[in-house]
User: What shape does this take?
Amino acid sequence: MQSRHFCLALLLTVCGFSAHADPLRVIAHDSFDLSKPVLADFEKQTGIKVELIKAGDAGQMLNKLILTRANPIADVVFGIDNTLVGRAAQAGIIDPYTPKAGAKPVRFTLPNGVVSVDYGYVTLNLDKAWFAKSKLPLPKRLDDLTLPAYRNLLVVENPATSSTGLAFLLSTIRAMGEERAFQFWARLRQNGLKVSNGWSQAYYTEFTRNGGARPIVLSYATSPAAEVFYSKQKLNAAPTDNLLLPGAVFQQVEGIALIKGGHERAAAAKFIEFMRSDAVQKDLQTKMWMYPVVSGTPQAAVFGLVREPVQHQTPSAAEIQKNAPAWVKRWIRVVLK
Assistant: This one.
């Protein structure tokens, strides 16, 4: 009997069929990306077929998971970060997971059973050619962006729908204090601030580097390196740069988690461990443009073109969980209404 089962399993593998009747449903934000050979190797080694569900920005993704928690649309979620982990836990959509014993040490962790995978820095990027042509001095403080000289130059993401936008809001509050921060946001609005729903729209539609009208965009500290990596022409320097202004740098830690009520529990656990594997930790650097969370992972050479920020203004996950909902509501009143 045992040998017959072994033969049947071997036949299924040879014929290209997964031992798992149902695919593993992985929901992620739109920026999730892994090289096809890396993902294919996971499927080959485990017999698990991965069905990837792209769900917009991280904030939009979380909203979808909350709305569908009675009948979950996925088994595992990637992209819950330190701006959203408290809200995800409060909504009851996460089943805590503990990585296997003996795993390599990591630089940063997340609470509530979410497993950290990567980290990066949300900050302002600028179009170097635009500023050189306009001969406009670079802003030295966040408050400079409220001056008439910088009117209609900035685009940021909406913190109600974007984890990137929420990160920037949180960093301004951490640096300035709540009252002064919202005064700053009110002045930004009066100075022609543009708000987009997510990072892709801000960077690929509104930013002057991609044909838009805004030469300052809220993005990531690694974005200039990505510009060089993807350029069709060989570049010795990045065409964009970071504005590492005090109050404008947030350390984002992203993670992966089991979804409560998901079906493929064993397969989901294997995928979580896979996201901390050497192959993924190396690959994500030039696919998702984040730093690897596993200590000792070699850094991509192109990251040498940018400085990893040494200072950032990042509230704790507990502080974010306690205050972020009220701060976002206040931001909407101040900036959008």
